DNA sequence: GTCTATAACGCGATAGAC
DNA sequence: GTCTATCGCGTTATAGAC
C-alpha cells in the first residue's frame, strides 16, 4: 500500500478522509496521530496538510458530512402519508442508514466532546434537526390518536437511542439479517408508542 | 485546593480516582494527561504514581469497579417474583443507578476502546453478565406467556440501549424528575415487550 | 508522600527542496 | 504533491532529594 516518492494522486484526499474515519472510529480522535493517518494512506505526515488545514477539520468535516447525509437520506426516503407509515419508514431508514456506515455513526456519537466549541455548536444544530424529524412524527400521530405516548419528546429520545443501539452489537455475520433486525425493531417501536 | 509541599494525605488516593473519573468523562481518556489529573488534586504529576501503577490502571480500575457496583446493586434490588415484577424493578433500577453516576456511566460506554486487550476482555465479561440479567428475565417472561417479543436477545439489547440513552440528555434541572422519567420509560418498556 | 528534574519519546504543524 | 527535516511543546513514567 505504500506509495513511492513523486507519485501523484488525485484521490489522496478521499483516502485521507477514509483512513481518518477508520482510525478515529477504532481508536478515538485523541488517540490517533497525524502520522498514523499518513501511514495508512502511504504518505508522510506533512503531506496530509495538502488536504486538511488541521486535524480538527478532519473530524468536523466528517461529522458534518455524515449528519448532512443522514438528513438528506431521510428527506429522500420520507414517504409522507400517515404518522404510522412515516414512523415505520423512519425506523427502517434509521437502522439501514446506520448499519451501512458504522464508523461514521460511531464517530458522530463518541467524538462530540473533541469538537471545538464552534464546531460542536454546528453539529448540535444538525443533530437537533434529526431529532425533530422523529418528534414531529410522534407529535402528529399523538394528535391524530394513532399513537399513545406519555411524553412525545421523551418517547423520541427513547426510540432513537433504541434504534441507534443496534450499531453497538450488529455483526455482518451475525444471527439475524439487517432486514430481520429492522422488522423486530419496528415491532417494538410500534408497540412502545402505543400504535 | 492546591496543597502545600510536605502536607500529607490519607485521602489522596480517592481524590486521584475522583479527579480522573471527572476528567476522563469530560474530555476522554486519551485527551487527559497525568499532569491535568495531578493539577485537579493539587499535587505534581509524579506523586500520582504512589496511587496507581500507570494511567491505564486508573481507567481499568474505575470501569471494573463501576460494573461490579452495577451488578451488586441490581443483585440487592432484585425483588424476585414474576418476570413482570422483575422487569419493572430492572427498568427502574437501571435508570436510577445510571442517572446517579453519569461520569462513570459515560466512561463505561465510551472508553472501551482505550482499554488494553486483556482489560477489555475482563470488562466485557462483566458487561455480558449484566446483559444476561435482563435476557433471563425476558426469557422467563416469554416462556410464561407474560411477554411477547420476537427475539429475546434482540429485545434485551433494545431495552438496555433505550434505558441507557437517558444519560445522554438528562439534566438535573430538566423538565421531568427522575421518577417521572422512570415511569414513562417503564410504560414504554412494558409495551415494547408486549406485556 | 510529595517534590523537582529528567529521560525518552511522540505530538501537530510548518519550511523549503525536488 | 510529496518529501525530509525541524520547531516547540507535551507526553508517561522514573530517580532521588527532602
From TrEMBL, chains A, B:
Which keywords does the record carry?
DNA-binding, Transcription, Transcription regulation
Superkingdom assignment:
Bacteria
Positions of the HTH tetR-type domain: 10-70
Q: What are the protein's GO molecular function terms?
A: DNA-binding transcription factor activity; transcription cis-regulatory region binding
**Keyword match Transport:** no
Q: Which residues bind DNA?
A: 33-52
InterPro entries this protein is in?
A: Homeodomain-like_sf, HTH-type_TetR-like_transc_reg, HTH_TetR, KstR2_TetR_C, Tet_transcr_reg_TetR-rel_C_sf
What SUPFAM superfamilies does this protein map onto?
Homeodomain-like, Tetracyclin repressor-like, C-terminal domain
Q: What is this protein called?
A: TetR family transcriptional regulator
Protein species of origin: Actibacterium mucosum KCTC 23349
